[in-house]
Write a structure and sequence with these properties.
The chain contains eleven helices and four strands. The chain is α+β, with helices and mostly antiparallel strands.
Length: 277
């Protein structure tokens, strides 16, 4: 295996057998080395295979001047997230999360703390991702000796959600706000507290995440079949009345009209979470 490009003393890129680029990290792996030299495989500590070329270029720019330890802890957090969630995350997290950790540590060292305005919502809506964020703070403490505040666990959780849904961060903020507002409308309409540990609540949250994602991407469900809509409208009248309030809120707040199909599925989930939670 030969060096394709020297990024810094600790980072190189190579091409594998399929002519795919790998970014390889290791202390001193590129010291006094040039493109074309054979890689000292005994010094390899981390190997990154990023499929997206644009992400790969941004990643190489990012790792050019950050400590190897920061990159290593970021990768450990990402691997933990993948295993915990049991799903693939968009490669962009390698750039976004690492970049965030670097600046979070810099802010902390300068005594600048940024509060997370969505921390309460993140804890409730993205419980698994927030637990990953808390574990990430422990990793940063153990590996780097730096103790970051709980707000940062929320920010890390948002980066994980971003990589799950493959959305830009501003959209994740909008999605989170929309979900919380819809939950509040349901609670106030029925004058109840929802059982946040129930399976139906989990299903409702999952539906809301993808519903909100579709809404902000302009790809809402619309099969043009009114049968389900009319059936649900008659069968679950109170849940449907709640959905009418949600529809009015979304129209007023975001200028979107809900399709009949979206309203029908929302009604089904609300009926379940309210009556069988």
């Amino acid at each position: 295996m030969k060096i394709g490009k020297v990024i810094n003393n600790n980072v190189i890129s190579v091409l594998d057998e399929q002519n795919k680029e790998l970014v390889i990290m290791g202390r001193g792996i590129a010291f006094q080395k040039r493109p074309g030299d054979v890689v000292d495989e005994s010094k390899i500590e981390k190997t990154f295979r990023l499929e997206n070329k644009d992400v790969s270029e941004k990643f190489k720019s990012l790792v050019y001047d950050i400590p190897l330890e920061y990159m290593a802890v970021s990768e450990e957090i990402i691997n933990h997230a993948k295993v915990t969630l049991g799903k693939k995350l968009n490669d962009s997290i390698y750039v976004a999360l690492t970049d965030h950790i670097v600046f979070a540590i810099e802010r902390h060292q300068k005594g600048l703390q940024i509060s997370n305005a969505l921390l309460w919502e993140i804890k409730r809506i993205y419980k698994d991702e927030f637990m990953i964020g808390l574990e990430a703070l422990k990793m940063i403490q153990n590996k780097l000796g730096i103790s970051l505040p709980e707000d940062e666990a929320g920010f890390i959780a948002m980066h994980v959600v971003n990589a799950e849904l493959n959305e830009e961060m501003p959209n994740i903020v909008n999605i989170t706000k929309l979900i919380q507002d819809v939950l509040n409308i349901v609670k106030y309409h029925f004058k109840i507290d929802l059982d946040e540990e129930s399976l139906n609540y989990f299903r409702f949250l999952t539906h809301l995440k993808f519903f909100a994602q579709r809404l902000f991407s302009g790809s809402t469900l619309d099969s043009k079949d009114d049968f389900l809509y009319e059936m649900i409208k008659e069968k679950h009248k109170e849940a449907f009345a709640c959905v009418k309030k949600i529809s009015a809120y979304i129209k007023n707040e975001y200028g979107h009209d809900l399709t009949k199909e979206e309203m029908a599925y929302l009604s089904i989930h609300i009926e379940r979470v309210v009556n069988r939670s």
